[in-house]
Amino acid sequence: MKRVNRTFPLPYFTINKNFIIQAYSEEAEKTFGSTENLLDIVDEESLPKIRKWVVPDVRKLTLEIHLKPFESEGNPLTCDLHVNWQNDLYAEVLIIMKDAQLLKVTKTMDQLRSRLDDTNFALLEEKEKLEEAIQHGNRLSAPFINLTCDTALVPLFGQITVEKMYAVEEELLQSSQDDEIDRILFDFTAVGEMDPEGTRVLKDIMSSLFYMGVSVVVVGLQPKQVKNFHVLQFPSQISFLNSLQQAIQKYCTT
Amino acid sequence: MVMQHEHLSQFFLAGDEEGALYYTKHLLEKHPRAYLYEDILTPAMYYIGELWERNEISVADEHLATAICDFVLSKLEAEISNVSRKHQKNFKAMLFGVEEEQHYIGLKMVADTFKEHGWRVRYLGPNLPMEHSLRQIEKYRPDVIGISAALSYRLPTMKILLERFSHLEWKPLIMVGGRMATKFDLKEFESNQVMVVKDLSHLNQWFNEGRDETINETS
């Protein structure tokens, strides 16, 4: 192995067919130290590529490969390998590192991506907080109020949605069994829209209550809501009363 | 006939995000999501690596393709019909790529797979500094910690992470994945707390079979 006399301002090697270095330039020594085999400085992922392409059959070629990371870096370095076979035995190899511009663009793209990830993450956290708040609100939308020892009032609030109905279902069924409740008044005065799906779940809850031996009374239903009830064919055992006042007079004064 | 994954990779390489999205959505009409990830997206990205090896494309092309693939994944993820609270399980997973690691497409598909199974997921992206990951894990207390790495240079860091995570008091299951898990034999890492996940189908298999036992064992 000898230092070539010509001064190339670039890392330059002469190699044989087995990638053994025959000669190298000053720059090559500065950049890569002294190595015996060209493959020693190449990243392992690039080895198949270099073995496939750097052969005497391909006389002249430019190949993009990765080099092993330098000490301070954690990532393989991209470079262009210019190969020229002088004959079937020896090749001249010139290594030109990729333009810093490419690195800069790559880094910027990575930064942008991680910015987006962070934003996404922050949004996700907010979304989870919001969902919890909604869930909490839902659970509070059907309080179970004991009026007398056998009658309870459940005023429903806001829109009747599937989530809300599922959120109150368990609590409602539980409370109706805890005490000696015979009758539950569902008050619709504060109900706005009724989702078809949500109403269906509500119907199921009312049916369950009925099968569990509680009579269900619906009060304060507004005219526009009546047709939702009709469409879904609520159990016929449910009774209806115009207002809460009537209901209280009827069931709570003895 | 051009294979579906090759077709998709052409969109990626051309930087055609609309085309790529349209094509994936078209495939999703006929196939489940897991098939799209395992049998089309992953092979498409491997195919792009192959093209580079064949000296047909450059690293810059690869970066562009990755960005487009990332975009498509983000779009698809946003369109997963939200698993409603009633069906959401209370399992939590935290996923990230080790420090310095830049490969993340696979990890993103893993995050999506967890979400599809009703898990809560924190996807922290690639190149997460060690201290940061520890802080996040203490705060979030996930049932599963997924660590991804592609290159062999990450092995030392991976070892340190596994060592540290194995001392967490609530004993989460630690999954090691990424191309590293396919290329190297990581058996020495495996224990009843550490599992090497070779690919997405391996993960799906775990979801279908082993999850309950594994969770019970470790938490």
Automatic annotation (TrEMBL), chain A:
CDD domains, per database record: STAS_RsbR_RsbS_like
Family annotation (InterPro entries): Bact_StressResp_Reg, STAS_dom, STAS_dom_sf
STAS domain residues: 150-251
Signal peptide: none
Pfam families linked: STAS
SUPFAM superfamilies documented for this protein: SpoIIaa-like (SSF52091)
Ranges annotated as spanning the membrane: none
PANTHER family in UniProt: RSBT ANTAGONIST PROTEIN RSBS, RSBT ANTAGONIST PROTEIN RSBS-RELATED
Designated name of the protein: RsbT co-antagonist protein RsbR
Organism in which the protein naturally occurs: Halobacillus dabanensis
TrEMBL record, chain B:
Domain B12-binding: 90-219
Pfam families noted in UniProt: B12-binding (PF02310), B12-binding_2 (PF02607)
Keywords, comma-separated and alphabetical: Cobalt, Metal-binding
A molecular function GO annotation: metal ion binding
GO biological process: homocysteine metabolic process; tetrahydrofolate metabolic process
Domain of life: Bacteria
GO CC terms in record: cytosol
Record flagged with keyword Metal-binding: yes
UniProt protein name: Methanogenic corrinoid protein MtbC1
Organism: Halobacillus dabanensis
